[in-house]
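Exercise 4. Each item below gives a protein and its sequence. For each, produce the structure-token representation.

Item: MEDS domain-containing protein (Actinocorallia longicatena).
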Amino acid sequence: MFVRRSVRDLLPGDHAWLPYGSESEQGHVIGDWVRHGLSIRDKVIYVTDAEAWELPGMFGEDLGPAVRAGLLTLIPVGEACLTAGMFDPAKMVETLSDEIKKADEQEFRGIRVTPDMSWAFSEPFGDARLDSCEREFAGHVCPSISVTAICQTDVRRCDPGQLDLLKQHHEVRVIPNPDFDDPVLSITRTYQPLGLHLKGELDEARQGRFEEVGRPGEVGG
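Answer:
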């Protein structure tokens, strides 16, 4: 059973999962999470071959100061988890655990870790290796009082069996923050299916906010 938590409600010890179906969905969730982490001076560790300004949801933002200040660490995939060009789950876990240890020693308030390992399923023995990686990595996150992790998965690159495998390793599924939220009504974008999820009462006073959030071309943007 999944616990569904919005980005803002993730907690230390959460080994969360983001199965995304579009770059828009990925950017909406990960961009908010990275941006908020940097704003409160959490350490953000991101396994990616992208440059800082290319990160999902952060296109064009100047993250140079965060990199120079040590708040944001980008680890290339090859450096993080490849041995002789092959996915090495033990190396991945060791790399991330070392980075977490460094961040702990620097006494950051919180530590945020995110890799996107969708590509690993296409590697030889990818299913078994990713299964091992997820199981071992969870051991470094779930007992922690400072580490929060989001494992990203592009569902377009996985078959149903592979998605089921990943479900077994994550008790938390991360969802977007509400676009509007007050004591009466919460409006949150959904991507699978594409639309809006409303919780509460849509009254006349909030009709304008509903129309603003759901304006054509904005849902999923």
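Check: Confidence is low (pLDDT under 50) at residues 216-221.
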